[in-house]
TrEMBL record:
Keyword Aminoacyl-tRNA synthetase applies: no
Subcellular localization(s) per the UniProt record: Cell membrane
Protein name: Ig-like domain-containing protein
Gene behind the chain: Dvir\GJ22025
Low complexity composition-biased segments: 358-368
Organism: Drosophila virilis
Amino acid sequence: MKTAPMTQTQFCVRTLASVILLLLTGLLCTEGSHSLSNIQGQSEPDEVGPHFLAQLTNITVPQGRDISFTCVVDNLGQYRVAWIKSDSKAILGIHTHMVSLNPRLSVTHNGHNTWKLHISHVQLNDSGSYMCQVNTDPMKSLSGYLDVVVPPDILYHPDENIDEGVSTEGGSIALQCSATGVPEPMVQWRREGGKDIIIRSESRDKQAFKSVEGERLTLTNVHRSDMGGYLCIASNGVPPSVSKRFDVHVNFPPTIKAVNQLVGAPVEREVILECIVEVYPKPLNGWYRNEGNVKLHNSNKYNISEAMINLYTWHLNLTIRHLTKADFGAYSCSSVNALGKSETRIRLQELRLPPKSTTTATPHVYTTAKPRRKQQPPSHNKGLNEVVRAKETHFSNQMQQENDVFGSGIGVPQSANGGGAGGIVASGNVNGMINGAEVHTQLPARNGYEKTYKSPGAVPSPSPPWMFPSAGSQLLGTATITTNALVALFCILSMYLVKLI
């Protein structure tokens, strides 16, 4: 049986099928040889291929800094390293060539096994995951996370006047402070100078806090003591923290009081009248006389000054110089602002000083007690006693006359019956008067007890202290002393004779 000859078309189809079969046979043989070698452990493509020597580190950085990711790949061979932004799948660069058009991004290679991705002046939108990838089959990659943080910043509202809070006393003040940052910042309020923040309720109960958290601070039933600076402080752990100052003003009418409502001062002196005023806003202060009809001004007579103690307290002073009788009377200090007026009165009285003394003080004289004389028995010779008493009286009168003439200042004691001397003792204490001081004479009485007699002081000499006594006056004084001595001796002898008789 004869077969039909093949056409040209059939020949071409058969030839193409043979070629395909040969190709498939070669591919299967190749795969079989690879599989066999893997089973026998003769070669391991994963071990000799590219592999990473270190992990990519996560980075946290404040906005505006520069950072870099480092990727170390060993045994790279003919493969390439690429940098990819994971969340957007965008290829940033391959090997040392940049694909991204962002000028803040760049890649570098040290010529061995280290590749770096550089990001300068990082921004908040740079945050996310970054991948270092090797184009093997399957691909190999490592990822690192970039966390960009932003320091806190306080928002300003130019269309609102939020830099201060103003209210009348008893009203309310609300302060608002908003801040941004990554992570979200915490806002707290503090008071300048470390003072407490007073939070009052509607029932006027109050609590004191060193700090209050929250973007809004509300002060109710405000008091004048709440005035001052308040600080809004925002922080999120990223330095630096920021703050903003708010001024709180509480308006109220003046209240005034005098430091002393009654003041005394002598004439020709200077005196200061003082008042304390609590008021806000700043008042007009003044001093007046004559029931407030005459306002006082700075002059040679008056000096008016005021000093600010704190935001709402003033110290007012009125100085009056060279006081006269006409300056004594009522004064008033006054304070007025848009909410009211207040005044108080001070009375200035004359203070009379005691006159200055023109004499010197009498020196104190210390005396020594004399021993008692032994009582003499009464004499039976009455006539002799009368004679002795008469002589004593004569002697006493003579001494008194000499005192009157020469001013010796020796007092004459009176006897118990008032009729003459009670006895003369030469050793008795006699105190003279020098420069106007009084003189005291101490002589024993007849009954043996000591008595002190006060004599009139001598009149000061009209002669100046620098005038020395003449020789005649000295002789006269010597003669007087001699006469007194003789008289005393005669008296003693007389008494002795009386005893003998």
